[in-house]
Amino acid sequence: MSKIKVIGISGSPRRGGNSETLLDICLEAAGANGAETEKFVLNTMKFVPCQECADIRKDGRCKIQDDMQKIYPAVEQADVIVVASPVFFGSLSAQTKMMIDRFQCQWLGINVFHSYSIKKHKTGVFICVEASGRDSFLENAKSIIKNFFVTIGASYKYELFCKNADGKGAINNRKECLEKAREIGTLIA
Q1: Considering the entire predicted model, what is its pTM?
Q2: In what order do the strands lie in the sheet with 80-86?
Q3: What are phi and psi for residue 104, nearest 5 degrees?
Q4: pLDDT digits (tens, 9 = 90+) for 88-121
Q5: What is the set of domains in the chain, with CATH numbers?
């Protein structure tokens, strides 16, 4: 039997920040339990936002040749997708939203052109950290992630929301969040 493939996507603009720390713990636990893991750090990748191309490909593929071309096949082949993002202005980080918007071509291929189909259904995991205690911010972010997961054929299964975590490293004082990240990593493997 082949290993479970887990893809982690860090949408934080800050390396080693709170959401990336939780993602790393989750991926480490998944790997320790036999999963094959791969991590993408969006802020280190070179890609542009969706350009809503007038001459869009009709096959569900994006024609823009940039680092998103590394993410598309990884997402297609994965069994589990873990997206980690901090909250910015009541929603996802710009990096995370920019990546999600680039899946518009796939959405069109599925829903408009009927030329693209999901070959492998996946499990979706969302890790989100925010500085305030506002549930509405987490719910806004969650609604976008859930739409993204539908587009890539992932069932929204696990979530980890950590409120009131501000400042780099603040998450290290939140034992319950660290333990939950580890638990999710074990469950997805």
Answers
A1: 0.96
A2: 36-41, 5-10, 80-86, 122-129, 154-162
A3: -60, -35
A4: 999 999 999 999 999 999 999 999 999 999 999 9
A5: 8-16+27-188 (3.40.50.360)
